[in-house]
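> example.struct
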């Protein structure tokens, strides 16, 4: 029972607005080496000393591979219309090319059928980072051959599930895979090379465009797009140097992906900044990348403030921070959505992730996470603000359904609206889950009343 009910945002969303919750394969499934699954770069990365804050890995995670059916009942109990999940490439194709793993494919088929049986639309992401180690051994995303392997993987998943999923996302957050995975090296595969990172980003984008074309060629009915992590980037002061820094950082995070996707070109200032590290691009690549999408997914968590001399510290602004030390800045979401509408010919936008990590202990079977509820409520209100100003929005998904493996932070950071006790795997709905459930039922009732 929710003993701390928060008021609902006053906003009434359209009846066809898609409300959901999101997860990803590596973060919840566990079963990292059973039923023929091949190793992913995250399995390998977790084994390296010092990579994961609490020394943990994805071996068991939320044991979702075994508990999927109960988890689907839990999702259904929330009253969401959609569930965003990812398929693990090495679970279905252990070495990333060639032979398929029947048991892995069967798992996702059960999952998709289970969702449909419960009236929930499956939103599939093909690449949420758990890339096959066997392909990494051949150069990973820096190797152009990986592009074709990804297209084959996309077609294989479509052949099995394409008639039943509502949506297929090619990649989740290419910036993270490129920069955190290959430039700063704090995420798998842990490479520290700016040129490699730039080449990786180009091949991710190219494979996105090629996969969409290939899927459409075989008659794919699901809506197709990509998910970007975006954040408004502001200078710490109005000085020319801080503003220039903010512009370049926005170039690397946002324009580096948005310009090719919507204008078929990389931003000139970022190319100049990269210099000899700029990626190799072949004739025709940019047109493929700019293949029209059915939607653009956006993961939004916070704003970003930068200063030219690197002295900015998040504690300076006085804004509340989440457990990740991310500023809570809901108005940034409205700003971001309006900017996308202003600067690019965007298709309908989806918030594919939004949420926060907070300290929220389980006490007597309850989790009173009023801070998370407030976070969700204010961000949902920000989405509505943008819609009132003409932004076309398709839906909103909470990150995350349940506490899970938060990459380099391990299990210490909890983003779920459902608490997971990792010792027993018991799931407990937090107050924020009850709030979301009640918010969604109010939305549904209002939509029904309007239709009557
Ligand atoms: C995003 C990731 C997601 C999760 C959240 C907190 O960058 O897509 O898997 O880790 O951050």
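> example.seq
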């Amino acid at each position: 029972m929710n003993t701390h009910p928060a008021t609902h945002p006053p906003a009434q969303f359209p009846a066809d607005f898609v409300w959901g919750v999101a997860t990803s394969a590596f973060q919840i499934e566990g079963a990292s080496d059973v039923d023929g699954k091949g190793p992913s770069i995250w399995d390998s990365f977790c084994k390296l000393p010092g990579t994961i804050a609490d020394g943990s890995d994805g071996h068991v995670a939320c044991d979702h591979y075994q508990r999927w059916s109960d988890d689907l009942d839990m999702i259904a109990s929330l009253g969401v219309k959609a569930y965003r999940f990812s398929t693990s490439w090495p679970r279905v194709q252990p070495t990333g090319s060639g032979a398929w793993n029947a048991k892995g494919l069967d798992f996702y088929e059960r999952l998709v059928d289970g969702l449909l049986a419960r009236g929930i639309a499956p939103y599939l992401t093909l690449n949420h980072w758990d890339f096959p180690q066997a392909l990494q051994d051949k150069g990973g995303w820096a190797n152009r051959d990986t592009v074709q392997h990804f297209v084959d993987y996309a077609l294989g998943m479509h052949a099995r599930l394409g008639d039943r999923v509502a949506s297929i996302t090619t990649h989740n957050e290419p910036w993270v895979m490129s920069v955190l995975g290959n430039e700063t090296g704090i995420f798998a595969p842990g490479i520290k090379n700016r040129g490699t990172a730039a080449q990786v980003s180009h091949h991710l984008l190219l494979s996105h465009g090629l996969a969409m074309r290939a899927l459409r060629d075989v008659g794919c009915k699901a809506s197709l797009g990509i998910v970007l992590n975006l954040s408004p980037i502001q200078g710490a002061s109005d000085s020319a140097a801080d503003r220039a820094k903010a512009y370049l950082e926005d170039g690397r995070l946002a324009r580096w992906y948005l310009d090719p996707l919507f204008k078929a070109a990389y931003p000139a200032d970022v190319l100049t900044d990269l210099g000899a590290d700029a990626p190799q691009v072949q004739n025709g690549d940019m047109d493929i990348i700019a293949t029209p999408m059915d939607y653009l997914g956006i993961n939004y968590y916070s704003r970003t403030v930068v200063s030219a001399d690197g002295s900015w510290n998040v504690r300076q602004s006085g804004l509340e921070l989440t457990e990740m030390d991310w500023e809570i800045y809901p108005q940034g979401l409205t700003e971001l959505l309006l900017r996308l509408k202003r600067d690019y010919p965007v298709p309908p936008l989806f918030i594919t992730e939004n949420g926060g990590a907070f300290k929220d202990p389980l006490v007597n079977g309850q989790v009173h996470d009023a801070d998370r509820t407030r976070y969700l409520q204010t961000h949902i209100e920000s989405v509505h603000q943008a819609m009132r100003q003409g932004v076309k929005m398709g839906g909103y998904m909470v990150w995350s359904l349940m506490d899970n493996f938060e990459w380099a932070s391990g299990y210490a950071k909890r983003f779920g609206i459902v608490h997971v006790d990792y010792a027993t795997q018991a799931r407990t709905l937090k107050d924020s889950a009850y709030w979301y459930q009640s918010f969604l039922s109010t939305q549904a009732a209002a939509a029904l009343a309007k239709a009557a």
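> remarks
Residues 1-5 have pLDDT under 50 and may be disordered.
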